[in-house]
Amino acid sequence: MQEIAPYIVTSSFLTEEYCDFILKACTHANTWQPFKEDTQYSTFDINFETDFPMFFDKISTLYKTTVAPNLQALWGVDVTEPYAIFAIKYWQEGQTSLKLHRDDSFISASIKLNTNYSGGELYFPEQKCSNASLNTGDIIVWPGTITHPHECLEVTEGEKYAITIWTKFPELG
User: Fold this and answer.
1) What is the CA angle 46-106-82, rounded to 5?
2) Any residues with CB less than 8 A from the CB of 75 and at least 6 apart, and which?
3) What H or E segment, with its residue span, contains residue 70?
4) How far is CA 166 from CA 19, 94, 117, 156, in A?
5) Helix count and strand count (H, E) for the chain
């Protein structure tokens, strides 16, 4: 894992072929739903736990066995398991951006499923960092709350697809 800004790390995670497989499955299923829990930041998502449990299990296992141990070593915290894994779709004439926000997640991650679009960077203004230079299949990981507000800038051409991972908060006491 490579730190690209304070407490933002990236690494290769999924192969381009596996990302293409996931993307084809999502576009074929076409079960994109508005994110209902927070209408202010409505995105169009596919929940992997309900719609594609095999993707949820594979990505969760890979995260727990490769990313979590590295984060524990780098950040000195117990990294909890994912509780939500979902694909997000952004497109030029629809959901084109996501306002500045913080996640309801202890540690958040995003995986690029494609790069054949313009705009749409995941941007962290306080850290002056984005995922623009990452490749298909790369993961970017950050603390989900308090210190790392982020946004998805407007997609100006094509369609952007990504996977988001949210982890549970650690049990206290």
Assistant:
1) 45
2) 7
3) helix 68-75
4) 19, 24, 24, 27
5) 4, 14
DSSP 60: H
pTM summary value: 0.93
- CA–CA separation, 63 and 67 (whole Å): 5
Type of residue numbered 108? S
Q: Are 102 and 144 in contact (CB under 8 A)?
A: yes
The neighbouring-strand residues paired with 112 are: 162
Instruction: Specify the 3-state DSSP secondary structure of 2.
Output: strand
Taking only the tens place, the pLDDT of each residue in 26-83 is 999 999 887 665 555 567 899 999 999 999 999 999 999 999 999 999 999 888 899 9
Distance of alpha carbon 25 from alpha carbon 99, whole angstroms: 27
Please report, to the nearest 10 degrees, the dihedral formed by the alpha carbons of residues 93, 129, 18, 85 taken in order. Answer: -80
Cβ neighbors of 4 (< 8 A, separation 6 or more) are: 10, 129, 140
Distance CA 31, CA 119 (A): 24
